[in-house]
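fwd from M.: "can u put these together and see what the complex looks like"

so here's what she sent:
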Amino acid sequence: MTNVSLSDLIDALSQPSSAQWQKAWQEFLSRYHRFIYHCINQRCQRWQADRLGYQLNDIVEDIYGQVMVILCQDNARVIRNFAHKSDENRFLAWLAAVCNHAATRYLKQQFFQRALDSDPRSHTQVRAMMAEDNHDEWLMFQWINHCLREKQKTRRNNFERDLFIFFLYTFADFSREQIASLPCLEGIGHRVVDVAVNRIRSVLRQHRFSTDI
Amino acid sequence: MTVEAMVEEISMRELGYYLALLEHQRDHGKQRLPADLTPDDLTILEQLRERLAELEQWNILNRIVDELPAYECRTENPILENHQDFFLYFFVLHKARTQSANKNCMRVFRHLNYCYRCFKAFSAVSRTFFNTKENLNSRDNRIPETTG
């Protein structure tokens, strides 16, 4: 299978009943395994994914597994449907896009999960995902607003204050003391900060699997 | 560079630093400022102090908050970026316990909750403000008060 064209390789990948199917997948991995790893690794580096507290290799392996699921499922439907089967460069660009999307989706969920589940007294915050000019962080901010404003029909009187406290705590990594000493929030106390953060988190947990993100 | 230009070019992080110095001076007096401030620092502080005096007229304070968009900023530059008047008002002049101050607080919260770019600008100023205050307070706890 070493000298087979991209087009023939793609055809063989999607025919599990074929005698060449297993060899086709071995050839595919031989050609593109390192490329897929490289794309995922680069995206993880950009997100500084080791701030999640796991080994970077473990994160990359997880995402690699998800990419392979995407490529393999439904008899390699996504590969089979690739339109430019004779164009290696386009195929690589498409494959890079698949890897980048999978990595971004995974990392967003992981960082968001950390924001929802972190003990308020912990220092592991969503600020880990804050980087300069990162469009994805803006999307997260917008999604949280959307969840809390569009999906929740009733809101408490202190909603804006509570949301502001939540953003300061999770996005800006302010301590409870700093939040409670801000003008407009003076005198609220640490307990109010904890209650506000947990209140917002409990609402967001209800929508954590929303496909809007 | 003119004094006005110097003040205008203060970055968001630097603004937090100067605001903390201003607040510390208001609370503890001029003699408690760090001795290592440069002449430029002192000039900038003086300019900000003069602007504070202008802002302390009540109708100007309300206008600062009234100008905040109800939702996110639609312009290329977010309104709070380099908005020294707002931060002078918020960190140095704000009185949290009056009724209209509560209304102003809600407007500030709402805008910052909607506008990510303004939230980032606000966070940058606040972070430096808190770090500087912490340094000043720990310094005050170590060094006895001196006159002059």
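replying to her w this: Residues 116-142 of chain B form the longest helix (27 residues).
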